[in-house]
Specification:
Structural class of chain B: mainly alpha
Strand content of chain B: under 5%
Largest interface: A-B, 17 and 14 residues
Number of helices of chain A: 6
Order of helices and strands of chain B: HHH
Helix content of chain A: 55-70%
Number of strands of chain A: 4
Strand content of chain A: 5-15%
Oligomer: heterodimer
Distance between the termini of chain B: 11 Å
Distance between the termini of chain A: 51 Å
Shape of chain B: elongated
Order of helices and strands of chain A: EEHHHEEHHH
Strand order of the largest sheet of chain A: 1-2
Radius of gyration of chain B: 16 Å
Helix content of chain B: over 70%
Shape of chain A: globular
Chain lengths: 246, 68
């Protein structure tokens, strides 16, 4: 059974390094390597890996323009970064044999294997950090788009009914952090528990549909997180004059 | 991590309404696609988004089931 906490591997200069940190560093290395390869060969007539990624990015940019309108250029980097990072991190935990590399350690008198890699999104610290960054970036983007006065006007006003609604929306921002982080963590962690359980019972054919399900869940959860971030950014940074009155 | 009886009860009760909600979302999406098969690619992303929201409630119950 996988534990809720990631396992501690070592300590680097007083900073505890768990196996999810190692996996995050590995995913960063993969993404930077991919970036380097693509940047070297970028051209007006695409071929190879550029023709593979470009349609996807164009589709997502079209989606952003539909929802965000004029602010799509500022919002799209956040959308794409969250999607790519979370998708690759989720998939990293599904690589075959990734959790078989580890260190033997003694825990409560039992000789168990502590895996060296563990998908970073099965660590609640990671998803909480992602959710916090997402909400803080939303507010920061709003302040730079509509200014500090416009930002405060969304939450405070003289009309008592609007003031009540404004306070409610302020509380809702914290709920967004919790809901974003729990959704991602719960889906990926529960998927890992299911895979560990099934692989413990049948080793060969039965885990296949579960691994397929987990791949689809990895894609959908990354897409949901990124799309929610984009929608929240678009909604919150709407200037007061745009959109219908209520 | 061990499985307890209260944990099982939490997820059993907490999963009823989200499962119903996901079913209703899928039902209405199927109906809409049936009326207009060409709009299937436009209906699918909002349907997935709605299902992810509904599933999130079940995930909250699952977290409590793992803890308690």
């Amino acid at each position: 059974m996988a534990s809720l906490q990631p396992e501690l591997i070592t300590e680097v200069a007083g900073f505890p390094v768990t196996n999810t940190v190692i996996a995050t560093v590995a995913v960063d290395a993969i993404l930077l390597f991919l970036l380097y390869i693509i940047a070297k060969r970028i051209s007006v007539r695409p071929s190879g890996i550029q023709s593979f990624i470009e349609p996807g990015l164009t589709y997502f940019y079209g989606l952003t323009e539909q929802i965000a309108g004029s602010r799509a250029a500022k919002i799209f980097p956040w959308f794409a970064t969250f999607f790519i990072v979370i998708f690759v991190t989720n998939l990293f935990g599904l690589l075959p044999g990734i959790t078989a590399v580890g260190i033997f350690e003694e825990h409560h008198g039992e000789h168990t294997l502590v895996p060296l890699f563990r998908a970073a999104t099965t660590d609640f610290n990671m998803t909480l950090a992602l959710g916090t960054v997402s909400v803080f970036a939303t507010h920061f983007l709003t302040i730079t788009t509509v200014g500090l006065v416009g930002y405060l006007q969304k939450f405070l006003s003289l009309n008592p009914v609007s003031l009540f609604i404004g306070l409610l929306e302020f509380v809702l921002e914290f709920v967004k952090i919790i809901s974003l982080s729990f959704r991602l963590f719960g889906n990926i962690f529960a998927g890992e528990v299911v895979l560990v359980t099934i692989s413990g019972i049948f080793a060969f054919l039965a885990p296949l549909p579960f691994i397929m399900l987990e791949t689809i869940i990895a894609l959908v959860q990354a897409l949901v997180f990124a799309m929610l971030t984009m929608v929240f950014m678009a909604v919150l940074s709407t200037p007061h004059s745009e959109g219908g009155g209520h | 991590m061990e499985f307890t009886l209260t944990g099982g009860a939490i997820i059993a009760f907490g999963g009823i309404f989200p499962a119903l909600a996901i079913g209703v979302i899928g039902f209405k999406a199927m109906e809409a696609i049936g009326r207009n098969p060409e709009a299937a690619t436009k209906i699918l992303p909002p349907m997935l988004l709605g299902m992810a929201f509904a599933e999130a409630i079940a995930i909250y119950a699952l977290i409590l089931a793992f803890i308690g």
